[in-house]
Amino acid sequence: MKRNENREGIKGMVNPGRYGIERVSYWLMRITGLGLLAYLIGHIYETSSILNGKSVWDSMLQLTQTTQGHIILTLVIGMCVFHTVNGIRLMFAHGGIGVGKPTRPDYPYIPNSQNMKNKLCIYASIGVAALAMMYGLSVLFGE
Amino acid sequence: MRESIIMKIHYGTALGAVVLVAVHVLFRITMMSYGDSLQYENVIANYKFVPYAIMLELILVLLSVHGFNGLRVILIELKQGRSYEKAVTYGCLAAMAILIAYGSRTILMTSMGMT
User: What residues of B are in the A interface, CB distance below 8 Å?
Assistant: First the structure.
């Protein structure tokens, strides 16, 4: 077998099936981060319209305060909450908290760091993000 | 700068931003209804309230630093190389500086009544 045939590249990196929820969390963290950065840039551009007076601000509001705008904002809320909660988990993990103690690597080589505590935290991040999105929907559409 | 120092800055900016963004969102939904809080007069009043304007500036700086460093990390994970990494680092720094300057312009001019 040639070396290149064994190389999956980005396809192998994207595949969530092989490494379970940790790989899903890895991708969600990056996708939500990029989404939030895009929103930050858009939000700064959107709010700069206030410098051009009331009429421009009102027309910008008309553009964003629509059903589509509210759906995008709800997604932003979900992304923000997931990124925050999962980010706090990662900070603890990088600090060595909740990743277990190093042991001798014996077959079947289950890493201590990929334990149930971390998996539960990832599921909890997704759950909390879903709840925050529901609250966001109630605030945005409940007026 | 060492990568460990950069990651400490990354985590510090994240924690600071979480607290301040929470206050920013609470301002939108607790003082009055969400729709009313976005009315022109109310937004202008927010900007003219100096502590709030300072908080907005802090949020802008913290999120820009955190966001563009995150982008740099993602891009460096995808591909490596001396010139590529240099280009990504300086590109992200430049984008961060532009975003902070543009956002600060809005905050400063609005809080000083130049609308």
Answer: 7, 11, 14, 18, 21, 29, 33-35, 38, 40, 43-44, 47, 60, 63-64, 67-68, 70-71, 74, 78, 99, 102-103, 105-106, 109-110, 114-115
Domain spanning B3-111: CATH 1.20.1300.10: yes
**Sign of the CA dihedral with B94 first, then B96, B102, and B107 last:** negative
A58 touches chain B (CB under 8 A): yes
Neighbour count for residue A48 (Cβ, 10 Å): 18
The tokens for B80 are: 């490596």
Contacts of B53 (CB under 8 A, 6+ apart): B46, B47, B107, B110, B111
ipTM: 0.94
Q: What is the mean pLDDT of residues A40-54?
A: 94
Domain interval for residue A30: 14-102+112-141
Q: Give the domain ranges of chain B.
A: 3-111
CA distance B109 to chain A (A): 7
- Token pair, residue A125, equals 């991040």
Which residue is listed with tokens 């990568």?
B3
Task: Phi first, then psi: give them for residue B20, nearest 5 degrees.
Answer: -70, -35
Phi then psi for residue B91, to 5 deg, are -60, -45
**Residues A80-136: tens digit of each pLDDT:** 999 999 999 999 998 888 888 888 888 888 777 778 888 999 999 999 999 999 999
How far apart are the C-alpha atoms of A5 and B41, rounded to whole Å?
Answer: 63
